[in-house]
Amino acid sequence: MMARKQATEAPAASNGSPKKRSSADSDNHDVKRPRLQESTDKARWRLSSEGGRHTWHYLEDDEATKEWPQSYADKYFLGMPLDLPELPKATNPLDAVRNGLTFFEKLQLPEGHWGCEYGGPMFLLPGVVIARYVTKNPVPWYYATEIKNYLFARANPVDGGWGLHIEGESTMLGTTLNYTTLRLVGVEADHPVMVKARATMHKMGGAIYAPHWAKFWLTVLGIMKWEIVNPVPPELWLLPDWVPIAPWRWWIHMRQVFLPMSYLWSKKWQAEETDLIRELRNELFVEDWNKIDWAGNRNTIHPNDNYHPKTAFLNTVNWLLVNIWNPVFRTKYLVEKAEAWASELIDMEDENTDYSDLAPVNAAMNTVCCYVRDGPGAFSVRRHVERLDEVLWVNAEGMLCNGTNGVQCWDTAFAIQAIMDAGLTEDPRWRPMLIKSLEFLEDQQIRENVKDQDKCYRHPRKGAWAFSNKDQGYAVSDCVSEALKSVIILQKTPGFPTLIDDQRIFDAVDTMLTYQNPSGACSSYETPRAGQWMEVLNAAEVFGNIMVEYEYPECTTAVLTTLSLFKKHWPNHRTAEIDNFITRAVKWIKSNQKPHGGWYGNWGICFTYATMFALESLASVGETYENSKYAKKGCDFLIAKQREDGGWSESYKACETGKYVEHPTGSQVVMTAWALIGLIKAKYPDIEPIKKGIKLIMDRQQPNGEWLQEAIEGVFNKSCMISYPNYKFSFPLKALGLFATRYPDEKVV
Questions:
Q1: What whole-number distance in Å separates Cα of residue 441 and Cα of residue 413?
Q2: Among 208, 267, 302, 339, which is most buried by a count of CB atoms within 10 Å?
C-alpha cells in the first residue's frame, strides 16, 4: 500500500465505527432521505410509454390503480404471474414460432414497440442517485425501496460486493459506488448487507483503491477531495480541431462523459456537507480520513478494476498537468473561456436530446453541471431530473438503471425480422401487431440533422433511427440499418400501408452511406476521427477500446445486408456508390475473420454473435458454405463449438480475453439461435447439427410460449456486459422460422 502523508487540511469527520443515525444526529442542512420500506406493492407499479419514452409510476391511490389496470407487460417485467393458459405443444418449428409470438405479442406496448430492461452495468444507478442527492432532489420512497432491493439482490453472494456488471467479480468501482448509493437511499450502516460489503471494501484497500470514475463521483459528494481525481481540464476543448488529441476526435461516449466531468473538475464543486457525508468518510476508508494523502493516491487502483492500466505516457501527462500546467499556465482568463465553451457544449447536448442526453452517465453529470451553473430551481435542472426517470426500470428484483433510455427501435426491428424469416408477415393473425410496429418506426424516424451539427461535432442523422427513441436522437449505423430493413420488409409485403415514402427511405440510405470508413468497414455512431494510438490516453481504467470509434463487424454487416435488400427494390438510387460500398464492406468482413473462422463481437457475446451477422451478410451477396471459403470457415468454427446437447454456450470472458470461452452454466438459448441463424443463412449442408440446435430451442420453450432468461447477452468496451432480455424471443423465433421455411418437411420432434 502506498505511503500516505499527513493532509494539510483536516475537516471534521466522524471517528470510530459506523453508528445508526437518529433524527437528532441530522443537522438542518442534511438532504432529507426517503423512508425505506421492506418492499413496495408490485401490483401498484405501471409502465408508461409515450412517444417511446418509458417511465415507471407507483400508484399509491387505490382509485388510480383501478383506473389504470396493469398490463401483461407490466406484470411480466415485474416478475408477477401472468396466469396464461398452456398452448398446444409445438410439434414442429413453425408451431413453436406461433406459440412464441402468441406470448411475445402480449409484451408489445401500446405504441407498437417492445420495451425491456437494459441493465447489467453496476455503475449507472449510483450516478443517477448521486446526481439527485447533490441537487437536493432525493428519490421518492418507492424508488429508494426498490433500489435497495435491487442492490441487495445483486450483491455478490460470497463477498457481498458489487462488480462492474451483474455477472462480474466484485470491484472497487461497483462496491464503493453501490455501497454509497444504498446509504444515500436510506440503508443504515449496520445493516448486515452493508457490514458484509464494507468488510470486502476494506479488505480491498478502501475507497482510495477505486478507479477514476468512482473517485470523481465520491469527490462531487464531498467524500473525497479533488486532489485525488486525475486532472480533466476543460481547456482541452479549446484545442484547435486539427490537433490530433482534440476531444472532438474521441468516441462519442468518452467525450460526452469527460465534457461535464471537466466542467465540474474545473469548478472544484462539491455538494453541501451533511451528516451522512461525514459518516461515509468514516465508512469507506481503512485509514483516518483526515490523514489521507489525496494527491498521492490519484493512481491507486485495485487490480480487479484495472482492466486497462494507465500508460506511462498518460501518467506523464497527468504529472505535467498537475505540476506545470495548473500552477503556471492555467490563467483565470483561460479557465473562464474553457468553462464557458464546455458549458455551451453541454447546452447543445441537452438541447439536441431534450435533456435525455446520450446515456445515463453524462445525463447525471450534466444534471449536476446545470445545478452548479443555473441554480436549484432552474428549468434545466428540473427537466434533467424528470428525464432521468426514463433510464430507471423496475423488475422482479427491484429498480435498476438502463444503459440508455431503452432499446425500443432496436428490439422492434428484430421482432419484425423474426416474423418475416418465419414467412408469417402475410398471415392475418400477426398483421395488427406488425402494423403497430411499422407505425412506431415511422414515428421514430429522425427527420432532420441536429442543430449546429458541425459546431457540436455531431454526425449526420437525417432519415436515421436511434437505438432507443428519437428524443435521444443519436443515430447508430446498425440501428439505422436494422430499422430500415424492417420498414422495407413490411412496406413491400402485400397488405401493409406505405407510411414512409421513398424520399424518407432515401434519406436513411444517404445517412447509412456516410458511415463507411476508408477500410470498407463501418463504426457505430460516426466514422473514426483518430486511430487506436489514442488509447494511450485512456483514463477510464475499467474499459478497453473506449477512446475512439472502432470498426465493428456487426455494424458493417448490418449496413451491408440492408443495402443489399434496398438495391432489390430501388436499383437506380446511387447505384454505383452502393455497389462500391457493398464490395468494400464484403472485402473488409473477410479480412476481419479470425484464424479460427469466427468474428469477434463487440456488442454481443462474442464470437457466436458476430459470426452470425458475418455469415448472414455474406449470404446476402450470394456467398455461402458451398462457394465461399470464408463462409465455410465460419460455419466450421460454429460447428466445432456445438455442445453435446445441440446448443452453444459462450461466456462473457471471451469478450475480455479475445478467446472463445464456454459458459459454465451450459447451453444458452440465445447463443444457440445465433449459431443456427448463421448456419442456416450460410446453407450449411449437414442438417443434423442444425436439427439438434432447433430441438434444444423447442425443448426450452415454456408451455405458455415464452423462453426463460438465461445468461447475459451483450457487451460494450470489451469488459462490461449488458442485458438484452428480448433477444430470448427475437432470435429463437428467427432461428425457428428460418428452419421452418428452409426445411418445411423436416421433423425435429
A1: 8
A2: 208
- The pTM of the full predicted model, rounded to 2 decimals, is 0.93
Q: Quickly list DSSP for 435-457.
A: HHHHHHHHHH---SPPTTTTTTT
Q: Residue for cell digits 422492434?
A: 412
Distant-in-sequence, close-in-space partners of 502: CB < 8 Å, separation ≥ 6: 570
Q: Which amino acid is at 275?
A: D
Three cell numbers written together for 583: 464490395
Number of Cβ atoms within 10 Å of the Cβ of 178 = 24
- Helix/strand/coil percentages in the chain, nearest 5: 50, 5, 45
Check if 478 is active-site: yes
- At a CB cut-off of 8 Å and minimum separation 6, what does 387 contact? 354, 355, 356, 357, 363, 405
> CA dist 134 to 126, 129, 150, 230, 343, Å?
12, 9, 22, 21, 19
3-state secondary structure of 50: strand
In single-letter form, the type of residue at position 258 comes to F
3-state SS record for 143-184:
HHHHHHHHHHHCCCCCCCCCECECCCCECHHHHHHHHHHHHH
CA–CA distance, 130 with 294 (Å, rounded to integer): 21
Distance, CA of 211 to CA of 302 (rounded, Å): 8
Residue numbers of the chain with a pLDDT score lower than 50: 1-29
Catalytic residue among 293, 357, 478, 507: 478
d(CA 110, CA 410): 17
Q: Are 339 and 234 in contact (CB under 8 A)?
A: yes
User: Residue 129 CA to chain centroid, in angstroms?
Assistant: 18
Q: How far is CA 380 from CA 131, 339, 386, 580, in A?
A: 13, 17, 10, 46
Q: Are 190 and 20 in contact (CB under 8 A)?
A: yes
Taking CA atoms, 656 is separated from 98, 521, 600, in Å, by 37, 22, 11
Rounded to a whole number of angstroms, the CA Rg of the chain reads 26
Which has the closest alpha carbon to 346: 261, 264, 259?
259
Which residues share a beta bridge with 47?
A: 56
DSSP string, 656-715: HHSS----TT--BHHHHHHHHHHHHHTT-S-HHHHHHHHHHHHHHS-TTS-----S--EE
Q: Which contiguous run of DSSP H or E holds residue 608?
A: helix 607-620
Using CB atoms within 10 Å of the CB of residue 13, give its burial: 0 to 12 exposed, 13 to 18 middle, 19+ buried.
middle
